[in-house]
Amino acid sequence: MRKLLHILIILPLLWSCGDDDDFFPDQEVWPYASPASKGMNEGILLDFNSNVELQNFGNLQGFIVIKDDHLVFENYYQENSRREFFPVGRVGASLVTMLLGEVLNNELGNQIDLPIYQLLPEYSAIFDANPIKKEITIRHLLKMQTGLVWNESLRSVADPSSDLNSMIRSNDYVEFVLSKQIEATPGRRFAFNSGCYFILLKIMDQLLEVPVQSYFEERLFQPLGIENYTVDNTPQGLPDYVLGLSMTTLDLTKVGYFVLKKGDWQGLRIIDDRWVDQLLSVQVEISSQNRWGFGWWGFGEESLVSTNYGINDVYYLFGENSQGMYLSESQNMVVVVSNGLDAARGFNNSSFWAYIRVLDSLQPATL
Amino acid sequence: MVLNEMKHYILTFILLLSVISLQAQETDIPSDSVETEEEEIIIDKTIQPFVFGMFEFSNTPQGYLESLSGGAGIIFKGRFIIGGFATRLQAPITEKVIFPNDFDFSFSHGGILLGYRTDRRQLFDFAFTMRASYGEAVWAREEIGGLIIGDKFAMINPAVGVDINASKYLKVISRLGYRRALNLSLARVAPNDINGITFQVGLSVGLFNELDK
User: Fold this and answer.
1) Do A123 and A213 have their domain in common?
2) Is residue A154 in a domain?
3) Is the whole model's pTM more than 0.90, yes or no?
């Protein structure tokens, strides 16, 4: 009888005091607010939402808007949810450039103009074979002005004739990129080249005393509260943050917001704001439509965003599957678009047009 | 911290029950030794299993709404109640927590039920109960259900009430109490949306003591 009573008391106590780690908490990184309370036209956003549900915005699967430090829009499509990991594609390269500044500062005394051949002794044969390549500096990698032949802007990753496609199939990404022919003096010609980020990752690996992944974990993911993500490895065993990172849309939004706040996360300074300023400032005027910072695109003076909406400080990233991240300091706004892999649809500009609908929703008073 | 606070409440209540139990044993022993022996035999050997179902009216983010509660337990020594229960909010609550979706609110918890009741063997008995539970409050995206946000919480709910002993097998039970959620943090749900007076009414079916005639 007493044993039975003890069991009856202890079992519910144990059960009631237990915890369930599987439960997905309300992270509430940002307080929730209605778009209308932040001066946005909800009718336009609802219309946009309906169109995404009808798949009129390509394969768009996750969409978040942070306006004035509040989460004003968050939705997932095609049966996806907040828990879902999406491949972030090239957007992940922003993590590399973000942490690079700190590594350069700590290990190289900010020598951004240091020739990379000095940091990559195992590839000395490539540099010795073509001495012009010895002029390539860290700055050239960041500005995408290596002078190496690269057709990534013209061909999709799925195209076997694309350099990026060939690089992914190679055994050594860095060797593949550096082995490309020189078509211009380094520092002269812009050619978007994701391979540059792999070289930067390799340099970080050479300079750091800890594994790159541990460094990213400690300096970025943990402070931002990004606990769940997956990252592929390059054939050399480096974490592929450039093309192989998958995370939730909400966590990706944290990265964008973190950049918007110049490396400050909830009062904690993680990245030097001067480095973030360098990342976002115009380094290359590509055309009247587009600008390039260190790893970030900007809209030019004659772009739709500048001419129709009068916003001149939008920085953005996009991936092969039209993933996108758009920041504007003057609007205090971050827009993040997640897309699933869908090679059949090919490249589309859906994240850009989704962003345009958000700009449409901004009422004149807030512009 | 929440669990410690909850354990504190539970242990305090168990201590209280122990004191009451000792007092009850003292008062159950009359001066007549023969009658005492019979009385003790009846009291010590009696285990009254029961199940119950109740409607509960309690505070929610949209005011007082009904929940459904059920459980099972035993009454031992005629007076002490121990059991388990589970409660789930029944009334629909929908809000646009995060634009552009409507979210359905759900609220459920379960745990242990401890109590003390009189053993008058008359039509009415009086009871004092303490429920200590653990549960979750969740906003789930309507229809799709994918975007789910929520929080776990602990809860205590002391209550007093009256049992109507309808028969040896049936009681009508009612409780008036106060509910307090511990460490619940969820958008659009303030602590005072959950804390507050509770009223429960329902039926309990079991193998109870015979009423005195």
Assistant:
1) yes
2) yes
3) no
Owning domain of residue B38? 2-206
Q: Cβ A79–B111 below 8 Å, yes or no?
A: no
* B117 falls within a domain: yes
pLDDT digits (tens, 9 = 90+) for A110-151: 899 999 999 999 999 999 999 999 999 999 999 999 999 999
CB within 8 Å: A74 and B98: yes
A26 with B47: Cβ contact below 8 A: no
Please give the average per-residue pLDDT across A323-343, as a whole number.
88
Q: Is residue A119 part of a domain?
A: yes
CB contact residues (below 8 A), chain A span 322-341, against chain B: none
Report the chain A residue with the minimal C-alpha distance to residue B102. Answer: A75
Report if residue B211 sits inside a domain: no
All residues of chain A having their beta carbon less than 8 Å from the beta carbon of residue B147 are 74-76, 81-82
A243 and A289 within one domain: no
- Structural domain of residue A297, as residue ranges? 28-84+249-367
CA distance linking residue B171 with residue B162, whole number of Å: 10
pLDDT in tens, A162-196: 999 999 999 999 999 999 999 999 999 999 999 99
Predicted complex ipTM: 0.80
Q: Is residue A22 part of a domain?
A: no
Q: Is residue A316 part of a domain?
A: yes
Q: Across the interface, which of B84, B100, B152 has its CB nearest the CB of A19?
A: B152
Maximum Cα–Cα distance across chain B: 75
Is residue A61 within 8 A of residue A80, CB to CB? The reply is: yes
For residue A285, give the CATH number of its domain.
Answer: 3.40.710.10
- H/E run at residue A120: none
pLDDT at A135: 97
Cα angle value A6/A7/A8 (rounded, 5°): 90
Task: Please report the pLDDT score of residue A26 as a whole number.
Answer: 58
User: What pLDDT digit, counting tens, does each position of B3-31 carry?
Assistant: 555 555 555 555 555 555 545 554 444 44
Q: What is the mean pLDDT of residues A42-63?
A: 93
Co-location of A217 and A146 in the same domain: yes
Determine contact, residues A183/A246, Cβ cutoff 8 Å.
Answer: no
Within a domain: B108: yes
Nearest residue of chain B to residue A78 (CA atoms): B144
- Which of A17, A73, A79 to probe by mutation at the B interface, max B CB count within 10 Å? A17
Sheet holding A333-339, edge to edge: A70-76, A60-67, A333-339, A324-328, A314-318, A297-299, A290-292, A284-285
CA A131 remoteness from chain centre: 33
Are A109 and A133 contained in the same domain?
A: yes
Cβ B50 vs Cβ B73: under 8 Å: yes
Contact A81 B146 (CB under 8 A): yes
Across the range A289-303, mean pLDDT stands at 95
